[in-house]
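Lab meeting, item 3. Inverse folding demo.
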C-alpha cells in the first residue's frame, strides 16, 4: 500500500513553531517512528510552503497511490484551488490537523479540503496522522 503524507505551509517548522499548540517533535522524527511502526506500508512524505507545489504533488500521486493524508495548514481555510485538485484525482484524501481547529479562531472552522475528503481528523497532535494511516489500513 502506497500512502503519501502531504504537509502544507509552516509545517516544516514543527518542533519549533508554537510548541504549546503543535508540540516539540519535528516532523522528521515523527515520520521515522511511523515508518518503523508500519513496515508493510510504503510511506512517502512531501512538504511545501507553496500552494502550486502541493497541487502538483496531488496531481503526481493522485492516480497511483492508495491514499493521501493531507495537512494543508492555513491553505485548508483559503484554497479553492487545492479543493479542486482533490476533486480531480482518484486517490482518497484524509484531511488531518494537529490542533483542534474547531476550538480555535472562527476562520479555522472553514475548510476547502473537507468537502472533497474521505474524512477529517483533528486535535490529536501528531497522532492525527497515525489515525489517518490506520483508517486506510
Ligand atoms: C493546522 C491548523 C491550521 O489552522 C494552521 O494554519 C496550521 C496547522 C494544524 O495542523 O493544526 O498551519 O493545520
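The presenter then showed the designed sequence:
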Amino acid at each position: 500500500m502506497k500512502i503519501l503524507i502531504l504537509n502544507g505551509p509552516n509545517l516544516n517548522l514543527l518542533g519549533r513553531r508554537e510548541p504549546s499548540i503543535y508540540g516539540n517533535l519535528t516532523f522528521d522524527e515523527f515520520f521515522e517512528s511511523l515508518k518503523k511502526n508500519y513496515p508493510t506500508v510504503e510511506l512517502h512524505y512531501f512538504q511545501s510552503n507553496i500552494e502550486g507545489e502541493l497541487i502538483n504533488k496531488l496531481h503526481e500521486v493522485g492516480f497511483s497511490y492508495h491514499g493521501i493524508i493531507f495537512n494543508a495548514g492555513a491553505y485548508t481555510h483559503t484554497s479553492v484551488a487545492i479543493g479542486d485538485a482533490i476533486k480531480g484525482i482518484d486517490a482518497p484524501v484524509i484531511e488531518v490537523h494537529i490542533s483542534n481547529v474547531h476550538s480555535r479562531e472562527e476562520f479555522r472552522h472553514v475548510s476547502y479540503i473537507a468537502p472533497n475528503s474521505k474524512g477529517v481528523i483533528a486535535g490529536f497532535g501528531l497522532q492525527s496522522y497515525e489515525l489517518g494511516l490506520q483508517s486506510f489500513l
